[in-house]
């Protein structure tokens, strides 16, 4: 009788093993085997991290093995099991790999196909077509769309973490890591004693050092020492944790009535302000999205305030960006003066602090939450609904999008909301407004840079976010083009891939709410456009998230440089600001500690982090794809070396887009 050797690999994450009964059936072209209990006497099968082998003898020839069925039946208590893969050695000595990388919950069953990626047109056998269809039908019942807030991208239908399908829940250690990171922040930063001191102001700027940890040669320490300087202020718009707002000013806006006479002392080329604009030396950051947003009113004992500044910046003769004018609200007037570097020291400093606070709010809610987490969740849900596990694009994305659901992320953002001026509803208003500007082209990194007039490396030589981002974007695009070329031999194959087209349509209809102005495609018709689309998804979920997430402690831990709230309204006149007024405007001791703990925890990598280009799970088994992955890794390694060489001896190294610091997944 034919005999097969079955090798079963259990995951190594917490609670991956099981004591339940595991049964296996083989489905071949000539027949189906009986169920076989996988069990060895006096042996603890399916332990965490174990690789177990079993001999399975069948009554008759099965032909070519098409499917492997795994059933889990309760032994004592319900016991989830994470199955990595099954390898089958046939009677002929051939090895067939059946990747799984999924949880089997309750008394569940899972049916696996071999690891070869297949488009729907490749499946001609009825049983394989049926398996493909049933998998998507099951997934579409599990992954349902829901409106979290009006105007938001739709999210997954789940009210809490336990409602999520098991495969996209945080691993236990992921959740524990974040909680421990936050707890460690409270303990290691020695801020527990200040946590409940709300309404208690700091004495002066130096007093903030009581909750600030100095670590030699770090960016955060340099920020603490130089945050008041105009050069440091301007540099952050290029290479801080929100380097996506600055744009070249093509025309001075009427709502900012600044004149040459006002900024003459800041201009270095003996030109008028208008001439500097024409030569491309003036830049602008406009926080108009914050205009009219409701400030946090959840604490009746503390009033909190927001502003909507306009900041004009200048490229000096050293090619450095410095601020030259700040107006703290959108409508000009006598009570909304334009603050200048020539003003009194504390007038100018407080104006810059207001800009930094506004930048923090846009960064957390729009740049970070909306444009990486919520967008990636849309891609993730649509992927599960329309791409079966055997689809090459599912295999390409599985590790990047499997935990993108935003329900689990609420803990990350609710923690700092207590300390944020946009908490209590303002952050919702911000996302609703920002959805108007969320376009497909704005997620295409090179086009987004060009749209802001920031693409010239000669004119703007110190924009490392741009330089490194373009390198990573091109590496990803080259890789995706290779993968597309392996599975799609013509543009017509792209058009005829109905699963792919349904995925793209779902993103447009539910993620972007069917808005034509979003520019998101309803369908994809060429291999080139498919490669671009895949690049957008991967870059957003990995590189873009890394660029705006992991620098938060560096740039936001020194509270005066990134205040999460302001406790007094913006000044309406010049010459009246004092150091005492600034300190009383900045966050109190309690809110400062909440903020510091949050940015520390969010900035930490998880243990066993997987970085860009790493594919430890063998979703792909074909040699051409494995070779493409190897070339991708080699390209990324070259970029790592280039960035490391540039950063040598820099007082402010930029490393957030170094591929060895870009996690594969957005969901942390």
Automatic annotation (TrEMBL):
Residues in Lipoxygenase domain copies: 118-668
Keyword annotations: Calcium, Cytoplasm, Dioxygenase, Hydrolase, Iron, Leukotriene biosynthesis, Lipid droplet, Lipid metabolism, Membrane, Metal-binding, Nucleus, Oxidoreductase, Phosphoprotein
EC number: 1.13.11.12, 1.13.11.34
Localization annotation: Cytoplasm, Cytosol; Cytoplasm, Perinuclear region; Lipid droplet; Nucleus intermembrane space
Residues annotated as domain PLAT: 2-118
CDD domains documented for this protein: PLAT_LOX
Tagged with keyword Transferase: no
Protein name: Polyunsaturated fatty acid 5-lipoxygenase
Native species: Canis lupus familiaris (Dog)
């Amino acid at each position: 009788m034919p005999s097969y050797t079955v090798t079963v690999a259990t995951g190594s994450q917490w609670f991956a093993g099981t004591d339940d009964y595991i049964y296996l059936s083989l489905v071949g072209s000539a027949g189906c085997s009986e169920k076989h209990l996988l069990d060895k006497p006096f042996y603890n099968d399916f332990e965490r991290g174990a690789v177990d082998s079993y001999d399975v003898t069948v009554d008759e020839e099965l032909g070519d093995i098409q499917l492997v069925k795994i059933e889990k039946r309760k032994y004592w208590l319900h016991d989830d099991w994470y199955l990595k893969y099954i390898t089958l050695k046939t009677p002929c000595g051939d090895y067939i790999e059946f990747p799984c990388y999924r949880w089997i919950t309750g008394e569940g069953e899972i049916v696996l196909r071999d690891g070869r990626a297949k488009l729907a047109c490749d499946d001609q056998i009825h049983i394989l077509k049926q398996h493909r269809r049933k998998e998507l039908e099951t997934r579409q019942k599990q992954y349902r769309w829901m409106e979290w807030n009006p105007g938001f991208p739709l999210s997954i239908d789940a009210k809490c973490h336990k409602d999520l399908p098991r495969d996209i829940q945080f691993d236990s250690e992921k959740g524990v890591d974040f909680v421990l990171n936050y707890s460690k922040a409270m303990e290691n930063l020695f801020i527990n004693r200040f946590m409940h001191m709300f309404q208690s102001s700091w004495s002066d700027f130096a007093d903030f050092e009581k909750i600030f940890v100095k670590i030699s040669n770090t960016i955060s320490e340099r920020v603490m020492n130089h945050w008041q300087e105009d050069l440091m202020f301007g540099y952050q718009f290029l290479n801080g944790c929100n380097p996506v707002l600055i744009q070249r000013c093509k025309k001075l806006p009427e709502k900012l009535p600044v004149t040459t006479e006002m900024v003459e002392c800041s201009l270095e080329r003996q030109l008028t302000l208008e001439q500097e604009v024409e030569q491309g030396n003036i830049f602008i950051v406009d926080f108009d999205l914050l205009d009219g947003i409701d400030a946090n009113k959840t604490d009746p004992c503390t009033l909190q305030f927001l502003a909507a500044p306009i900041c004009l910046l200048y490229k000096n003769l050293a090619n450095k960006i410095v601020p030259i004018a700040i107006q703290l609200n959108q409508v000009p007037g006598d009570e909304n003066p334009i603050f200048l570097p020539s003003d009194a020291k504390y007038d100018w400093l407080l104006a810059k602090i207001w800009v930094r606070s506004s930048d923090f709010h846009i960064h957390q809610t729009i740049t970070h939450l909306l444009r990486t987490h919520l967008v990636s969740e849309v891609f993730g849900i649509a992927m599960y609904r329309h791409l079966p596990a055997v689809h090459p694009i599912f295999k390409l994305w599985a590790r990047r999008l499997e935990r993108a659901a935003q329900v689990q992320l609420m803990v990350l953002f609710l923690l700092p909301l207590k300390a944020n001026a946009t908490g209590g509803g303002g952050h919702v208003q911000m996302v609703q407004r920002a959805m108007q500007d969320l376009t497909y082209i704005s997620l295409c990194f090179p086009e987004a840079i060009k749209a802001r007039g920031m693409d010239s490396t000669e004119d703007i030589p110190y924009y490392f976010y741009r330089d490194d981002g373009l390198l990573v974007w091109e590496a990803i695009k080259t890789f995706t083009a290779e993968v597309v070329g392996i599975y799609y031999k013509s543009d017509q194959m792209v058009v005829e891939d109905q699963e792919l087209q349904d995925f793209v349509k779902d993103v447009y209809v539910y993620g972007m709410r069917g808005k034509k102005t979003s520019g998101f495609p309803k369908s994809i018709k060429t291999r080139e456009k498919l490669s671009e689309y895949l690049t957008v998804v991967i870059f957003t979920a990995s590189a873009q998230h890394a660029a705006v997430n992991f620098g938060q402690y560096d740039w936001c831990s020194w509270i005066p440089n990134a205040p999460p709230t302001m406790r007094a309204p913006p000044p309406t006149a010049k010459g009246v600001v004092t150091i005492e007024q600034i300190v009383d405007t900045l966050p109190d001791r309690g809110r400062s500690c909440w903020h510091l703990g949050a940015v520390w925890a969010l900035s930490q990598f998880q243990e066993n982090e997987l970085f860009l280009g790493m594919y430890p799970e063998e979703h792909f088994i074909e040699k051409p794809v494995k070779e493409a992955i190897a070339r991708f890794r080699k390209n990324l390694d070259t970029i790592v070396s280039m960035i490391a060489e540039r950063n040598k001896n820099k007082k402010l190294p930029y490393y957030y887009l170094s591929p060895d610091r870009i996690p594969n997944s957005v969901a942390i």
